[in-house]
Amino acid sequence: MPNSGKLRLLYVISLPHSGSTILAHHLSLLHPLVNLGEAGYAVERLSTSRSAALPCACGRSVEECEFWSRMRDGLPRCIGPSSEDAYARLIPEFRSVFGNQAILVDTNKTSEPLRYLSSRPDCEVFVVHLIRDVRGACVSEALRKKLKHPARAEWFTATQAAFQWIRKNHAIASMLHGLPLAGCRRIGYEALCQRPQAVLENLGAWIGASPKPGWQENHALIGNQLKFSGGDRGIVYDARWQSSRAFYPAFLLFPFLPWLNHRWVYS
Ligand SMILES: [Zn+2]
């Protein structure tokens, strides 16, 4: 891929628990990708007084990590609510530490920073919209909620989750459609788990990245990314939905759901 002089940024957008942690970990093994996890939110966290001890996925603390220690040193005590300010500080620091060829991987769960990032003339923004099979998403949510609310029916939580899956993924797709992006792809969590090598090779070819011995740049601070920091774990598919019927009522209530699920996740 020709170097335009712009920072290439790979933004992974998804609903929570859709596999973005796993995807970002594996992307960090491709050269020249550098995973910063939920980057904008991480910068906001750095402005708190206790952030020096936060663990980074590279195995060091914030004050020891080459990147986050420099970010933290240059931050005022409180960044404020604007994620634009966070990214405006992060981008030049990223280029300074990792060089102009490095590609920033961001797994921020919110879509809002994309408007700002895609409007920056010094950035080329590629987006991966990661979507999990609605049946897996519903059952996973129902099982999580059951731990907090044992009396609540699984089918009820699963149906609520199905509605949110439709509403939020549709909002993401609509928003992406109107942005000046360098590229945009939809990837199913199922394909990532079942054919990880093919999916990662495809993504790498698309953005101009490939495996390189010894390369791993994972500096995620936020979320559950840290549990992947120990090495190249395999991708294990969460198949609990296959032994559950909790998603059945959602398919009755939203008859178009099987079609939408197939279109978004499997085609
Ligand atoms: Zn680090």
Can you offer a commentary on this structure?
The protein has 267 residues and is α/β, with parallel strands linked by helices. It has a domain at 7-135 and 180-234: Rossmann fold (3-Layer(aba) Sandwich), CATH 3.40.50. Helix content is 45%, strand content 13%. It has 11 helices and 7 strands. The chain has helices spanning 20-27, 39-46, 66-73, 83-98, 112-119, 134-148, 154-177, 189-194, 196-207, 248-253, 257-266; strands spanning 7-14, 30-31, 33-35, 103-106, 123-131, 183-188, 210-211. The strands form 2 sheets. A 5-stranded parallel β-sheet has the order 3-4-1-5-6, sandwiched between helices. The chain has a two-stranded antiparallel sheet with strand order 2-7. It is globular. The two termini are 26 Å apart. The protein binds zinc ion. The site of zinc ion has 7 residues, from helix 3.
CATH fold descriptor of the domain at 7-135 and 180-234: Rossmann fold
Uncertain residue ranges: none
Helices, by number, come to 11
- SSE order, one letter for each helix or strand: EHEEHHHEHEHHEHHEHH
Question: Mind telling me the C-alpha Rg?
Answer: 19 Å
Fraction of residues in helix? 40-55%
Average of per-residue pLDDT values? 90
CATH class of the domain at 7-135 and 180-234, named Alpha Beta
By oligomeric state, this entry counts as single chain
Supply the CATH architecture of the domain at 7-135 and 180-234.
3-Layer(aba) Sandwich
Bound molecules: zinc ion
- Number of DSSP strand runs: 7
Strand content: 5-15%
- N- to C-terminal separation? 26 Å
Main β-sheet: number of strands, strand sense, barrel status? 5 strands, parallel
- The backbone outline, from C-alpha atoms, is globular
Which structural class is indicated by helix and strand composition? alpha/beta
> Order of strands in the sheet with the most strands?
3-4-1-5-6
